[in-house]
């Protein structure tokens, strides 16, 4: 019951101010956010590489309100890519981007987001890596898929995310399970209405399995984004049945969640990519992590009350 309330709060400016200023917040935020600056995240990337893990980097931010903020978001990614190039880490680190941070919701936002994300995709390709477009709420997805298709004309390795809680996703998965495509499947982290999305956890999980099967049996590169042990073992079984080798799909999990599992899967020979978020505009990302697990909220409340 708490999840939808927290997700509603994730869009409230008043709550943003309260949570950001509360004593004790930082301690909990640090569990999910790898740092505020590129300098702080670099040791985390190198440490992950030393442990046999790969990363996808998210400069946190979303729902910006001016074209200048969108340009600043683009520049933050370009700075990150420049740093990865200097460090020779291009092959180990991909980028994940939210198009709302690149101006998608502003007037003329579809074109603006495409214009801002393109230089990031070009810069990523120049250092031997790629970009995945995160999935945000359902109203943004037609635009996201159109931008994805446009980018793939020149950069076919550009990835995108699909969410099993949405009714539309099986059809999207069939379209996307084509040669050369890279698709991350997740359950979905936004508050969606019953007209477009399953509300029941069991239905979301069943849809996840159906979609994984489509991706594993297809010709693309499936990226399994989940911490759910049951879905991870089903993914392994489906990959085996589809005759996929270990380097023909990958697992992805979030920084700070089930870190022992990251290492276990990597040790088994799987490609394991840790979604590593950093930056100062962490509020929306943080609140979605709280919504996913009520115990996080208790931990958060306790850390505020004990400060
Ligand atoms: P589930 O929520 O059932 O969790 C399984 C277990 O994992 C829990 O029992 C718990 O042990 C642990 N766990 C999960 N979440 C936790 C948390 N926040 N804190 C502590 N423990 C937790 N969503 C989206 O809408 N668009 C996107 O682009 C992305 N991108 C993305 C990338 C990657 C790499 C991952 C792993 C996830 C996303 N998501 C996302 C988020 C996704 O939609 C979903 O909300 C979370 O992954 C939680 O779902 P699980 O599949 O982990 O299962």
From TrEMBL:
<keyword id="KW-0642">Proline metabolism</keyword>
<dbReference type="Pfam" id="PF01619">
    <property type="entry name" value="Pro_dh"/>
</dbReference>
<dbReference type="InterPro" id="IPR015659">
    <property type="entry name" value="Proline_oxidase"/>
</dbReference>
<keyword id="KW-0560">Oxidoreductase</keyword>
<comment type="pathway">
    <text>Amino-acid degradation; L-proline degradation into L-glutamate; L-glutamate from L-proline: step 1/2.</text>
</comment>
<dbReference type="InterPro" id="IPR002872">
    <property type="entry name" value="Proline_DH_dom"/>
</dbReference>
<keyword id="KW-0547">Nucleotide-binding</keyword>
<keyword id="KW-0285">Flavoprotein</keyword>
<dbReference type="InterPro" id="IPR029041">
    <property type="entry name" value="FAD-linked_oxidoreductase-like"/>
</dbReference>
<dbReference type="InterPro" id="IPR008219">
    <property type="entry name" value="PRODH_bac_arc"/>
</dbReference>
<protein>
    <recommendedName>
        <fullName>proline dehydrogenase</fullName>
        <ecNumber>1.5.5.2</ecNumber>
    </recommendedName>
</protein>
<feature type="domain" description="Proline dehydrogenase">
    <location>
        <begin position="46"/>
        <end position="299"/>
    </location>
</feature>
<keyword id="KW-0274">FAD</keyword>
